[in-house]
Design a protein that fits this description.
mainly alpha, two-stranded antiparallel ribbon, rod-shaped
């Protein structure tokens, strides 16, 4: 059902978990059939008398109880496996949703950085056309580069 990968992380194999659940249910069904045989034996021994009849009754009651406990444990284990798989499927879906949201936010930041760069270039062109000092235009371009560099460092982490 689960295994460690090369990096020490545990991975749950849903198909293997489902196979395990199926096997547990099959085993529980076999035990239920055994339980039905015990009930039949109890009914048959009800018409008997003597020590053999009492021994059969005592042992069959003991077996019935043990079979019931084993069936309950198998069903509980299958239910637990199902809950674990469902829990981690929900966690995976939540993580995917968060990553998609993060990715969209990063794309929006990149678009904003491009817009800042375009605005700085437009400002430089306007200042140059208006005869403004080249130093002011270079300053605006430097601000745009700083923004892009900062965002680039953020995305390359």
């Amino acid at each position: 059902m689960a295994y460690y990968d090369g990096k020490g992380r545990i991975t749950i194999d849903e198909a293997a978990a489902n196979r395990d659940i199926r096997r547990l249910k099959e085993a529980a069904q076999i035990l239920r059939e055994s339980q039905a045989s015990i009930y039949s034996l109890q009914r048959q021994s009800g018409g008997m008398e003597g020590m053999t009849a009492r021994a059969i009754e005592e042992k069959s009651l003991e077996m019935e109880k043990k079979l019931g406990q084993m069936i309950a444990k198998l069903e509980s284990t299958a239910d637990y496996i199902r809950r674990v798989v469902d829990h981690y499927k929900k966690k995976d879906q939540e993580l995917k949703r968060l990553m998609d949201t993060q990715r969209a936010g990063m794309e929006a930041m990149k678009d904003s950085a491009k817009a800042v760069k375009s605005a700085a270039e437009a400002m430089k062109a306007a200042q140059t056309a208006a005869g403004a000092a080249p130093a002011a235009a270079d300053s605006a371009k430097q601000v745009a580069r700083s923004v892009l560099d900062g965002l680039g460092n953020l995305f390359n982490r």
